[in-house]
Design goal:
7 helices, 37% helix, Endonuclease I-creI, six-stranded mixed beta sheet, Double Stranded RNA Binding Domain, alpha+beta
Length: 309
């Protein structure tokens, strides 16, 4: 039987002393064991898998609560264990169900899997992630700029998964020394990430802005965010904002529609993102007055803009 284990959940295991009918063996050199107890058989199976996985990864948060209650004047006690297991996707082949027993409405499910197969499954995933991180480091180590920052930022969450897999690999019985190269790779990623963040700089180009008010407001907004603006063209990206204006006269009223798009590109002119903004202004007196109001309304939107790269 093959399981694809992907856990990111909170399980609640209620184990009453009278309902624990299966004892979980101690893990040995050959097998790893997992035990799940629940009124639902399918949930008990999942809890058994979670219990097994918990032993592989240190990225687990567990809390235990002891409860006492009176039933018909008789004191009863129970223990509730809440286990939060970090995201960990493992394809575990040949998982065996050794016992599956139900008594008084509670299922006890005991499973086991060969330690060597677990190690092989984790090793394959660790190697695949190592290849991905290696390519990223090779591609961007020589040019730490906007392209590097954007690429590394997109896979930052993968670093957490990678670290969890390494932890699970050690938890399966592999020596820490065997995982040193992977841990060094994560350190290299973190170092490059900081370097690219520091050099994530952009030039601002604004077109069709006769008054300069739009550019001033945009520049102030971007400077207040985590975006670094520069005039240098060396290894810097660019943010281009082009103002487009349309004018209509409706029932004697001048209406000006303004639109712009913030196009962001890296130092190699590759697309990163775009953000559209629209505003309008109206006046019975003149087109110039309507244009001023439109610019004012567009600036208000810029000030509310939570722009990031």
């Amino acid at each position: 039987m093959k399981f694809l284990l992907f856990i990111f959940a909170t399980f609640s295991i209620v184990a009453c002393a009278g309902n624990l009918i299966v004892e979980k063996p101690v893990n040995d050199k050959v097998y790893l064991y997992g035990l799940g107890i629940n009124s639902s058989h399918s949930t008990a199976e999942k809890l058994a898998m979670a219990n097994l996985t918990q032993q592989l990864s240190s990225q687990v948060d567990s809390s235990t609560q002891n409860r006492q209650s009176l039933t018909n004047g008789k004191e009863e006690s129970s223990t509730e264990v809440n286990t939060k297991v970090s995201t960990l996707a493992l394809e575990l082949p040949n998982v065996e169900t050794i016992k599956s027993v139900e008594i008084k409405g509670e299922w006890n499910v005991l499973i086991r899997v060969k330690r060597s197969l677990v190690q092989l499954a984790i090793e394959n995933q660790v190697e695949n992630m190592s290849d991905d991180f290696s390519l990223l480091l090779e591609d961007h180590s020589e040019s730490p700029g906007p392209a590097c920052w954007y690429a590394l930022k997109k896979i930052k969450s993968e670093k957490v998964k990678y670290r969890s897999l390494i932890s699970a690999y050690v938890g399966s019985g592999v020596s820490v020394a065997k995982t040193k190269q992977y841990s060094q790779q994560i350190k290299g990623f973190e170092k490059l990430f900081k370097k690219c963040k520091k050099r994530n700089r952009y030039r601002l180009q604004v077109e069709n802005d006769p008054t300069g008010e739009f550019q001033k407001a945009l520049q102030e907004n971007l400077s207040a965010s985590d975006i670094k603006l520069t005039r240098s063209k060396k290894n810097t990206g660019v943010i281009v904002a082009k103002l487009d204006m349309q004018t209509k006269k409706i029932y004697g009223q001048q209406i000006v529609f303004l639109s712009t798009k913030l196009d962001v590109k890296d130092e190699f002119n590759n697309f990163i993102s775009d953000t559209a903004l629209n505003a309008k202004g109206a006046s019975f007196s003149s087109k110039a007055e309507a244009e001023k109001k439109a610019i004012k309304n567009l600036i208000k939107k810029i000030k509310k803009l939570n722009f990031s790269i």
